[in-house]
Amino acid sequence: MAEKNYRMFILHDKRLLINGAKGRQAPYDIDYLKQLYTEAGLTVTVIDAAALAGKKTFNNALCDILVIPSGPVFPSMAEENFKAFVSGGGRVITLGGFAFSRVLDVTGIMMEKEISTSLGTNKPQSTDDGVVRYNSGSMPLFDMDYTYQGAVTVKAHGSQAIFKGEADLSANPLSGYSAVTVIGDNKRRWQPLLEGYDINGGRIGTVGALLYLNSRDFDASTFVPTWNNYRNSAIAFFGVTNQDITKNKALRDGFQKLPFFMMEGTYVGVIRNKYDCYRQGENPVITARLENTTQKDMSGHVVFRVTEEDSGKTVFEQQVPFTSGKRSCQDITVTWKTAGFDDDFYVVSARTYNDSNELTDICLTGFSVWNTEVIAKGPRYVYEDNYIKLIPDDKTKQTVLISGADDGPEIFLTDYMTPLVWRQDFIDRRDMGMNLYENLQQYSWAGDTWIFNTEEERERYYRKVDNAVYLSQKYNQIYKMGIAIMDNCALTPENMGTSIETASYLARRYKDVPGLIYYLNGDMIIRPDDSLKADFNDFLKNKYKTDAALQASWGDASLKLGMAELNAGRQATGWSDMQAWDIKEYKIFVTNRWTKTLSDVIRSIDKSGKAILCEFYAFPSELVDVNTMAENLTYSNIGWFYDATTFSKTYATTDMRAIGKSGGIGEYGLPAASLLQGGSMYHTTVHPQDTIRNFTLNIFHTAFAMGASHVQYWGFQEGTMYTSMFSVNRMNDAVHRDLFYWLRNSSLFARQLRPVYTVPEVAVLMPDQTRLSSDGLTGHYAMQNLFDVLQKMQLGNILTISDTNPVIDPSIKVIFYPLSYNPGDRVYNKLKKWVEGGGHLYLSGDISYDETRRQTKTNRLNSLAGVRLKKQLSVALDTASGQPVTYTVGGHARNGRANNEIETAGAAVTAADQSGRPVFTVNSLGKGKVWFNADAAEMFLTDNSAEANMALYRQVLAGAGVKSIKTYSKQNNIKLLTQTLADGEKLFCICNTDNGNGTEDFTFTAGAKTYTVASKAARADTVVTDKNGCLKAVFVEGSVFSGNRLLVDNPSYSHIYTRDGLPLEKSRNLVVTPLETGKTVIATAAPWQKLIAVYGQIVDGVFIRYGTAESRILNGTIELDITDRMVNTIILVCEKDGEQRLVQAIEKSITEKVSASV
Description:
9-stranded mixed sheet; globular
């Protein structure tokens, strides 16, 4: 680099020093820094805070580069002058910690908390909507949640030319903040300089980085204001907090070169491909955006190079000279005229050289080449028996829990999300054991517009999608393709032109891709407006047929068909308000019509039977209700961002296995950003790390135990437009968060298991009109509370049936049909026939209303329940006027409100109220029985004790001969959820719903075996047994006993499972994936010869061996000493001569479509 006598100022003020490590500020030697840069050829001036604040003592005319060695501490008096310096193109190097995180009044007049500043990342503009936003004057360097420690090696990043080689820091490992930053949109480039590696050789953080602030004008579409006040500048930042790394001999030369690169280096801001996925016969066109942010004209050349992914061979290289005017940018384009592609992925680089032929910058991207043979080998699947079944090369069908992750549209819309980044993300997901990837895929920042200005614009966009689709098939991940996300479903087919065209286009383009799911809509909107008035009236005509019927229903004698107003926001005046219900029913109708229209379009083109989905809210918020709106969809799909301990009762209400539509989690997660203080919702508020971990693990394992077909985490890659909150990897440098390993361990665990749908003995038939009638969701919450009670009765697995589509399997013994006030005749007749055939039915509240909510069906009480209506006390959900009742069932008193006063007409009285009036009755009907509760009990479950609630339902279960799983615990806060697996295996999920911090021993039976698990609060422990009830796999944060015999002690919170199909005690091929340190103990009776425990990681499908864990066999147990080095690794426990076989099996379980055994 040519040396010019640039002017450097170094800020040094003793008032900015904050006691070293306590203040997370690295020490520095001002005399050393001055000498370091003087020897490099710069004119160095040391200034204090007052001089930095003075416009006459510090400005762009006096200074080219400012060095801030005091790291986190900055003088408030200098903030505005400093910002003006950077806005004017001044360069900055900040050392010693989290820059600008403490802005102080060095005069001591103002308290730190009183200072108004927007400089640092910890001072966002707002967080109110769940997004951390910064204004245009902020400098959001670093992430307060991203620290590293134990960096024993620092390596120069391969895509920069300033630093060389590596530094050994094993004698004094580095700690600090990783040098990452919010980039915003397409106006700047983050360039890593130095990376830190731990003792295992794993990358743990970015030690130093360079942020280029580009010279080009801002496009109107780049609406994120972050950094907008600064361009034609560059900031180098280093977050080391425990030592002065400028004194490291191996790094000294780089630190001396750094100012000159910042002052004189032109660089490539971005490389853009014409297409990110090419076809054979096409010539790649590559454009580099050359940025000159300096104050002078620059010249040199750019070398474009294309290399094959597999071989690393260079297949194209071209040198292009340039002359670039000061503070300007220009595009340089080359074309590789190729006779054909021999690989399916290529790495593209643009290397910039100055006029002295010195390398100044390296920028990278890549592109894929569509290979139909690779596409044909993608993750083929069928959906049947309530599960997705993957079809490996042997054409068998393998049932698996599909695990995956979601992204938003940013990966297709921002420059820094290059095909190289996408490729690594797909590799990471494969290494995690995931087999699905979803992208919302909206073509706009607004999220709901699919309008392209030209055909070429559309083709360029879809070549990006092609690249993602291709990589998904290559790395065995089903691609879940967003089509019309956030569309308003309240449209007539005539007004769905854009969505129909998009669905049709996507189906034509991707119908031959085997691993594909069509994802119609998520974050759904159902908001009819006045333009649908005629359509609404057509709906009413079809329902009522005559004016008289409509008038009677709405209670308006003047109303005529065709004249009704569509008051979409109408609030119900009560349960009997049929106008409000008809508007809700119309919303259900238009949503089903919307999904049918798009499904029919897709099915007419792609006849392969691929799944078609929407995503619904976990609650019927704004009437977005999966139970009534999924009739044209393949299976149920909801999002979950709420308390993990309430998940099981809520998820149960969305279970649609009864009609073959299973269920699953389309997105779930909690934010990990400490800055989220203003969010009012559970998923926009910061949570402790332990809470996030428990949530992540609980949802995965609980969903699996409840028969979910898929579990997807939101969101894998958030980009760097805003502060990363949910991402599996860190912002900018993609270092894995702990979250990566929580999800990896869960996915690998699940890949060993083959769930099988079996019809439970017990079902809840949900009255959809009851659930959806109340604007406050009172009826829906009543269903949740019922599930909560039944789940705590240890029934294992409970089926959900919707009375909108009541499919009743003959093997079901008991149906709970609570608050079922107005079932249609079809539902009533089906239930009556089922009871007569031997079923046991529970009813509560009333059943005597017709579908217009008039009490015209009182004969049902007699013919079905064996009781007569004596007096109406309240109308359905409007229970406030109901008769308070106290009655005793199973020795437990209950309080509630009766809808009706009844008298027996053949039924036997099971419980009477305080006045002797019958409340709870049982009636024999054919071969079955009907229990009727005049109390609207499910409205008041939370008003009664857990024992009283269980006693009520136990009467019904006992009458049908249904037994709970034998369990014992001191409290009623644990649910034992079960899932049948292939070959007689069974999964038990011990779901502790206590939000406290305690531990409770929970004992349960599995066949002839009895197990006791030390269940911690807010955990979902998992135990898997074989057909004989023997322990085969565990995931517990504690111990597992059988009687007094310890089987597992797991302080390391590991998933522990076998890879040879044997029980844990007999296996000599085990996998242990720890999340914590501690001595892990596993009982063994296997004939061990020479045990070895090796630990490592899966990287790009290959097991990288780090070392061996201390292990021993002692008193019939395997003891593993899990140290810090082993946390988040994969430990293989096997015979020494069987290590390679187990390694190969683990690798195959990652790289193949389904898991392989040893």
